[in-house]
Amino acid sequence: MTPATLSIFRKGATALITGAASGIGLATAQRCYSHGMNLVLLDRDATRLSQITKHHFPPEGTSTITTHVIDVSSRLEWQQLAPQIKSSHPQGIDFLMLNAGAGFTPQEGKTFWDDAEYFEKTFAVNTLGYTNGLAALLDSVITVDNKNEAERAIVLTGSKQGITNPPSNPAYNASKAAVRTIAEHLSFDMAKAAPNVSVHLLIPGWTYTGFHTAAFREKPAGAWMPEEVVDFMVEKMAEKRFYILCPDNEVSEELDRKRILWTTSDLVEGRPPLTRWREDWKEKVRVGMEHVSLNGMDKLN
């Protein structure tokens, strides 16, 4: 890791993480805890939040650990919580990870397109959960008691589904596509307003989290554990990468990049949308993917 990244994960710095009671959020909190950071852990599951605090974060040294139960989709709850956090951590937030996400399904008997509430609930958590957090706490990252311009970071957890856009859950895909756009604009603005604050879009691969435990009692061989995602995230933060595109045990970084390039080419080439999943395009995609070249992209990196 570079010194810059090490300075973010430093003893006495403060990390605030949403969705902290499980999965990638919990694994990130454990990484921060291992560096002696103060933790502000947010989640909607009060029982789980209490359990993980007791078992994973015993009080040690001078670090402080506070937990807050919050529905991240509620702007009011963020507005009520923000003053408490700012009062408890007047030096500001050094590492902000907005990581909440949820998958909803249409009501029984309805399709995606019949159920407006399915879209509303999905966007409320997966998109507004991020913008609410930024509106409430961004000033604590960029301005509060940061006269020495110490390195700080913001991570927003996105999804490959928001980029390659596979069929089956349009609201989830669209909500995560919005997170990507938000993160890109935030990175652009922070480069001018607060160059000491790096912004990163975490794009996990197949990760064995609470989303999958109902379908898989044990981790599938193709999936990564959340700790592996965090290891990869920290490595790419050290390289100052904005897009942290995680592989897994089935899909390589190269294959991910080819899939993204193919998806984008639907637009550029004037093809129908979602050709990778269309039956009438099956053979064209098979042949075409074999000839997707990343050489020009690599030269631009």
Keywords:
single chain; 301 residues; alpha/beta; Rossmann fold; 2 domains; 7-stranded parallel sheet; 11 helices; 7 strands; disordered C terminus; SDR_fam; oxidoreductase activity, acting on NAD(P)H, oxygen as acceptor; oxidoreductase; NAD(P)-binding protein
Quick gist of this model?
It holds the Pfam family adh_short. The protein contains 11 helices and 7 strands.
Description:
The chain is α/β, with parallel strands linked by helices and 301 residues long. It is built from eleven helices and seven strands. It has helices at residues 3-8, 23-34, 46-56, 75-88, 116-126, 128-142, 170-193, 226-238, 253-268, 282-290, 295-300, and strands at 14-18, 38-43, 65-69, 95-98, 152-157, 197-203, 243-245. Strands 3-2-1-4-5-6-7 form a seven-stranded parallel β-sheet, with helices on both faces. Helix 2 crosses helix 8. It starts with a helix and ends with a helix. InterPro entries: NAD(P)-bd_dom_sf, Sc_DH/Rdtase_CS, SDR_fam. Belongs to the short-chain dehydrogenases/reductases (SDR) family. Keywords: NADP, Oxidoreductase. Pfam families: adh_short.
